[in-house]
Structure formats: C-alpha cells, structure tokens
Design goal:
This protein is of the alpha/beta class and 490 residues long. The chain has helices at 7-18, 51-62, 105-113, 156-177, 199-205, 210-217, 230-240, 255-264, 308-311, 322-330, 385-392, 396-410, 414-417, 443-446, 472-488, and strands at residues 43-47, 66-70, 82-83, 93-94, 100-101, 118-120, 127-132, 135-140, 246-249, 268-269, 274-279, 284-290, 293-299, 301-304, 315-317, 333-334, 336-343, 353-359, 363-366, 377-384, 418-425, 436-437, 458-460.
Length: 490
C-alpha cells in the first residue's frame, strides 16, 4: 500500500491537486559534491553526533580538515534511535526517525553510499484499521477512509468529498498561495499571514465542521492542542504532496548514523557534554565536563549541531546576537512519545489487517516487524503534541497499561498476546528536549529567519535549522551547509 490514511496521507492527496503549479521536478538537488580539499587544513569542532554533526564531520574530514566531534551521549544518531532490547527473537523497532520519503534525495544518497538496504515502510496489502468514536473502520490497501462510516458531525457535502476533497476545499487555496518553499525569498508576502494562525483556527474561518477539523488534525494533534504555525504545516504538506512512497532501512535506521560513525571513529568523543562556548576573532573554544572534570578544546571554527533546548543550558561568551538568542530561547519543539509493545503472535493478521492504523486518541499505529521473521510481532503507538506530553508524564507501568488498553480497542486480542513493552519519551531526553522544532504561530517570520546564520566562528546545523525539521533530510542538508560555510571561510 501507499502512505497510510493518516493526516499526512490525506493532506498529501489534496495537495497534489492544489499545488499543480509547483513542478514535481522542482530543480533543487541536495546530492552532495565533495568539498574542495583544504589548503591549509583547519581545526574544526562539532558539537553533536546526530546526522547533522556526523555528515559535517565526514565531509570535512574527506576534505582534509582536522575534526573533533563532541557528543554528550554514548552513542551516535541523536533522534535516530533503534531499539533492539529488550525484544526477543531478534526483533527491533525505531523509536525515533524511521521513514524515508522517496523524494528525500540526500538521505537516499547516503543510504546508497554506505550500502544499506531499503524496503517499503508500509506493507503493500491487507487493511489498516481506524478507530473513531469507538468504531473500528477497516480500510483496504490503496483506499481512503470511508467518511460515510465515520461517527463524527460532518456536513453531507464533507462526507461526499472524502478526505482528499476536504483538503482541497479547505486548504487548497492556501497551499497554492505559499509558492515554492525552495526560493530564497520564501514565503511570498500574502503567505506570511498563515504564520499568524493555527490550522484549526484557519479551518474554522473557512467554515469547516468540528468533525472535519478533527479529521484533518488527527493523528498529529487535536484542534484543542494544535500549537503549530499553519505556514509550517502548509510547507510540510507541499513537500509531501510530491512523495510516491516511503522506505525504511533494513536492520534499523540507526545503521545510517553508525555508518558515518564507523568512518569517523576516534574523531568522536562520547560522554562529552558542552558547558561553555567562547570565541574571539581568531579562535573558538569549547569546555566540556566529564565526571566533574573540565576539558577545553580549541579550534578555528565550531559547528553547533544540537537542538536548542540543551543549548539553552550552555554558557556563551561573548553572547550571540539578540536575534540568535531569541531563536534559541523561544523556538517551540513538539512532543513525541513512542510506546512499543511485544506481542506473542501477530494475531491481527487473522483478520487480514496489516498492523497499521490510527485512532482518535489521537495516535498513529505502526507494525515495524511486518518484514521481520518469526511469529512474534511489535506494535508501536506513535503519539504527538498534547497526548504525547500527557502520556510521557505517566509512570512507566501506567503508560504501558494505558497504551495497551488503547491498542486493544484498535486490535482486539492484544491484551491476551501482550508480553511487555518499552517507551521513548523524547521530552524526557535531556540532550534532545523534544521531538523536533515545530514553530508556534508567529515564529517562522519572527525568529526562524536567523536560525541558521553563523555567529562569528560558530556555525549552526541540525534539522531545526533547515526547511525539513523533523526529517533526516533536514539534518543532512544542514550539516552539509555548515560544512560548506566552514570549508569556504578563509
């Protein structure tokens, strides 16, 4: 099947018609060219061994520079996290970045370069299950959710339009108005107003029913807890409207950062959280702490490739510009919690279901082991925004019990097959501080313009500094941009 019928899917379907003026072959390509060889070589510090820091370190090393990467954790990857324990039978699941759209050329380039194998993220057959108002609605592969079966307050016209029709009716004009996000002066003047409002507020202005608004918000938020700028959502939708399918890396997504790390090896220093950054006209210095002992590193340039929440705790001398300080202090991050349950059997297959789905909790449901051998299976509940914060705040056992009972509603029989589970609460990760940057209304125009600009000898990378926040494509693109800045700075 193609992308499951969730919010991103039906936004995608409608956006294809609404943005027909935007050519699918948009002319940008982020497939990297080797950096010119260093003459002379520079000493470069990189904070963060996520994909942004790793790709910058890799390409700068290839160009002949002396690179040191300082990573607070004991592993590479950042938001890329594959869990293999405590699951049995060799099963694994991604608790962070997992999906690779087929138009994310930069991600696909490095997957190919390192000889990794891709498979479809979603199975090509069987049905998905959507749970709304306690009603289970099976949807055959390749079809949209049948709105005549949905127990929500929709107008007769909305039911007849279907999900993609709702997008065209209520968001089509806005999608057309935002233009090409790849242009340097994006967004155009009229589109800037979309940064001042949430999608739920905009849909109400367009006359959408309460039921239609919830359908368009699920499974990433509810109308009540949607905190995102509509402009951010429209840009994301436009990108996704040009996808045809999505892939995943066989063996786990963390094979990609591990491939980078294997090339860098002793250039990465793990367990090295940064507590201070200082610079003068000729050098930049970083102080880390390990077991109460401080260590200083000096270099010609620094690439800061960590999310802003942990950067807020780092002392900066001299202080960054007012615009940069504002961005670091105020940029909003979304919450995400992923709960992964191990089941004794893949019982859902008895009713020809594929283990994927959605509910009005809201949650997105994945079956990450559909292509893995064995009789046991893993089901993952992917929670965002308000429900992710509420679930993340629960005690571990309470969280597992809550999600198990919620998944039982979608896939009856889960409780009889449940063997245990784990959870990843990204808000609770002190070195991430959330899932990904998700600007609140007003922030794209007010603070995001300064987000990727260098501050003296300090350069910035990370998916939050790109136009693909929350995607591996954004992390890789930002790391290459920062590497190019450093390499070309004489």
């Amino acid at each position: 099947m193609s992308i499951p019928i969730d919010r991103r899917a039906f936004l995608k379907l409608g956006a294809s018609a609404a943005s027909a003026h935007w050519a699918s072959q948009h002319g940008w390509s982020f497939v990297p060219r080797p950096l010119p060889q260093a003459a002379p070589a520079k000493r470069i510090l990189i904070i963060g061994a996520g994909l942004a820091g790793l790709v910058a370190g890799y390409e700068l090393t290839q160009a002949g520079h002396d690179v040191i990467i300082l990573e607070a954790k004991l592993r590479p990857g950042g938001h890329v996290l594959t869990l293999r324990e405590p699951f049995s039978d060799g099963l694994y699941a991604d608790a962070g970045a997992a999906r690779i759209p087929d138009n994310h050329d930069l991600t696909l380039h490095y997957v190919q370069q390192f000889g990794l194998t891709l498979v479809p993220f979603y199975p090509a057959n069987l049905t998905t299950i959507t749970l709304i108002g306690g009603k289970r609605i099976p949807t055959p592969a390749g079809q949209q959710l049948d709105l005549s079966q949905v127990p929500l307050s929709l107008t007769p016209e909305e039911r007849q339009l279907g999900l993609s029709g709702l997008v065209v009716k209520y968001l089509g004009a806005a999608l057309s108005a935002i233009g090409d996000p790849g242009t340097p002066d994006w967004p155009p003047g009229p589109a800037k107003s979309y940064d001042q409002i949430t999608m739920a507020e905009f849909l109400r202005e367009q006359g959408a029913s309460a039921g239609a608004i919830e359908l368009l918000e699920w499974p990433y938020a509810t109308a009540e807890d949607d905190r995102a700028s509509l402009l951010w959502i429209l840009r994301e939708t436009l990108y996704e409207s040009h996808e045809k399918t999505r892939y995943k890396i066989t063996g786990g997504t963390d094979l990609l950062p591990r491939a980078f790390a294997s090339k860098l090896q002793d250039k990465i220093q793990y367990g090295s959280p940064v507590v201070r950054i200082e610079q003068d006209p000729s050098k930049v210095r970083v102080i880390t702490t390990q077991s109460g002992t401080h260590h200083m590193f000096e270099a010609d340039h620094l690439i800061c490739a960590v999310p802003f929440p942990p950067l807020r705790r780092v002392e900066i001398r001299p202080a960054f510009s007012a615009a940069k300080r504002k961005a670091i202090a105020e940029l909003a991050y979304d919450s995400a919690t992923r709960v992964i349950l191990q089941c004794r059997t893949r019982f859902w297959e008895k009713e020809k279901a594929n283990g994927f789905g959605m509910s009005d909790l809201p949650q997105e449901i994945w079956h990450p082991t559909f292509d893995q051998p064995g009789t046991r299976g893993l089901l993952a509940s992917y929670l965002f925004s308000g429900v992710a914060r509420r679930t993340g705040a629960m005690a571990h056992d309470q969280r597992l019990e809550f999600i198990a009972h919620e998944l039982e509603k979608v896939y009856p029989g889960l409780l009889d097959n449940l063997e245990g589970g784990v959870a990843q609460v990204w808000d609770a990760d002190q070195w991430e501080g959330g899932a990904y940057a998700l600007p609140s209304p007003g922030q794209m125009m007010a603070i995001c313009a300064a987000i990727d600009r260098p501050e003296g000898r300090v350069h910035f990378a990370g998916d939050h500094t790109s136009r693909w926040p929350g995607w591996m494509q954004g992390a890789l693109q930002s790391g290459l941009r920062a590497a190019q800045e450093v390499n070309g700075d004489r």
